[in-house]
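Run folding on both entries below.
>entry_1
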Amino acid sequence: MQDIDELAAELRTDIEAAGSLDDLEAVRVRALGRKGTITHLMKGLGAMEPEERRAAGTALNVLKDETVVAIEDRRTSLRNLALTEQLATESIDVTLPVRAEGCGRIHPVSQVVDEIVAIFADMGFAVAEGPDIEDDFYNFTALNIPPEHPARQMHDTFYLEAERDGAPLVLRTHTSPVQIRHMRSSPPPYRIIAPGRTFRCDSDMTHTPMFHQVEGLAIGHDIHMGHLKGCLEEFARVMFEDDNLRMRFRPSHFPFTEPSAEVDIGCSRKGKELRIGEGGDWLEILGCGMVHPNVLENVGLDPNEWQGFAFGMGIDRIAMLKYGIPDLRAFFESDLRWLRHYGFAPFDVPTLAGGLAR
């Protein structure tokens, strides 16, 4: 059998002399591969006498372990050396302009939220937020929604298994609970909008299980329906950039407002084309009304002293109408081609002075 000490010295020399990972791999194969030197010697142990086999086997195992460790140490050294050379020879010019295809895009929903906030902020409204998971009181009871109302049924609402104080928890079906939380946590008067995610059991071209809404609330001593009308007319004309936009308020019913109305804007429909502000047709965009006295009482306000209005609209629907997006489901499919087409430049921040659209 080849002298093990001589073989160990030879392998150490070869490992240290390896100038690349490929050279080191060749040394490993020669020593430890299926036909390698150490492998061949270990196969010959069976022909030896027991005492000789025991001594040679121990020595070969030690040699094998030392060789594996030496190869790994050399591999680490070669990798570090290659990285050092790469860092010394490569550089990035941070002054170069960003490639056009590498620019991110702002989602239409995010853009429209910013537009809505900009419009109502100019009217003195602050932004309020609340949790996505609500209990029965905030989502239904405090808003004067009776127990038998269809909105409470499981075909319309996502109920969770958990409960709070014996009442079920739900994924909020609107952002109106934010109004309740805000009124219960601070004294009047109020002037807020509450944009955010909402959830309902529905899915088609104009409905998705998760969507976005914004609710508005204004409470004071002398607020009336005329203020509501003026506020929403100003919003619609700025949002759709049409000073002559036709609008109408139709009587409707909502449990949390009385009187209630739905707001339509003028439009025209020719084939599959919809144009806002033209023609003799109408398109509903939001619901509104004067806050119901029961809602005020549920938050501890005297309806004989305080009154005001509330409204709500679908942010995704406003985005579809303003920017000509035909299918709501595409909003949530994470298609980069769609986002490049309908998205907005990162620094295209909407302002009333600079213009809301791109």
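>entry_2
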Amino acid sequence: MPLNLKTYTEHFTNPLYLESGRILEPYDITYETYGHINEDKSNVVIICHALTGSHHAAGTYEGENKAGWWDGLIGPNKPIDTNKYFVISTNVIASCFGSTGPMSPQYPYNDPYRYKFPVVTIKDMVKAQRILFDRLDIHRVYAIIGGSMGGMQALQFAIHYPNFSEKIIALATTHATQPWAIAFNKIAQESILKDPDFKQGYYDPDFIKEQGLSGMAIGRMAGHISFLSPDSMKEKFGREYKRDDGLYELFGKFQVESYLEYNGYNFTKWFDPLTYLYITKAINIYDLSRGFDSLKEALKKISSELHLISFENDLLFKSFEMKEISDTLKEIGNTNHFYKNIQSNYGHDAFLVELDKFDTYICEILK
């Protein structure tokens, strides 16, 4: 059977009450679906994306050659098998790929929100998705799966909507963002804010798409260092030098430098800088225990079968952070959770790159 890739945008006029006490109205959520929903709607699998991801998780659009970011996992006869499952991948609020974000027009005016956009949290993102599923008449799903910020969303679903999903799979994530990750985000934020072309948030988005934003590129380079690991960098680049650069030229480059430059500057032409500020803020303030007396109290809410998957050598969200969740669940007597640490030297991005190290495990979980 074909993937049956479809894209939709839903418009909501009811206010979305945010954790901060502010309101977002109206708002849009863009999402993608794959496969076919069965009669009793028991085959729905939700995919949650990471910081710079989007609803486009699998397949290719007409005229495009780049497949969705988890295309190796989602599709006919793949681990998340669209012959069996109806897969929904939504774009979070505050993003720049269709859902309402800081550069969306503020009702009733046509000017973008920019800094008037409210700070949103991971919990707010999940709440908006839950409202979307209600509208789609989907009140219980088979599984929710996400990595990194997507894993944060999956865990928030588990705590705040405990009867919504039968299974939750969270990869390469944490229960609360730690100072190390916040520090990397700080470099990116400062790099954006100090770039004169950012114009204190009043930049021309068309100019950025064409020219990029050098400050944001520098911040993204720092981010890339946290997504890889010393081992994966050594394996990928070694000490190779650019063939057409001289070793004794002041600005001659190692391959690793070229890689960071290319990815950093290219990134700024397709990802909005204000969105980057808002979503890194949401990641920084993410904490599962907020609103509860402790992490234990928060985790007591979970009733889904929970699968925690960490990656050895993940520098951004260390594997012990996932183990902490597992240990706390054991302490409170939760016997319906499973923790697996995948041996990998790749680093944080292993959940996007080294699919062969955990795809069979995903198959087993989904049965």
